[in-house]
């Protein structure tokens, strides 16, 4: 049997990594972060336990990569939904809605992610984060930003703050209110993107 080509090996590594990331998403949603072990994740992914350490230095880094993958996929789906558009304002509205929507679809996962960022390990650079960053930067450019290097970090910070506010235990803010504030900040009409069924909050311009 001839050895596998480099491209085949790369595809196998990509699939193996993605199975671990998906298993992390599923288990953290089911059990919470603390109750999920690296062994559990490997077993759910059908991978050897040593493979987790091969790809990720620890559980916290694995979680961040898993969440960044979820965010990237949600953002990509939102931007590419029908009807397709090149309207930068519509694309930014869709991006905001995609990220805020994760607080309702994956609350446990996103809360664990935010808690990890605030701990000593901080923010982890990974391929999934880089893909997410590229999509958000591209969205800001299409929106019409003349200084993406300054405007992209601001967008990222505002989205992270909104996610944190939506998931704050004991005092969460309603997503429609957070959406309205973000839309006002960027001069977006409420009807753009995917407006929540509750409608526009009162007393918001």
TrEMBL record:
Sequence ranges assigned to domain HTH tetR-type in this UniProt record: 14-74
Gene3D superfamilies per UniProt: Tetracycline Repressor, domain 2 (1.10.357.10)
Keywords: DNA-binding
DNA-binding region(s) in UniProt: 37-56
The name this protein goes by in its record: TetR/AcrR family transcriptional regulator
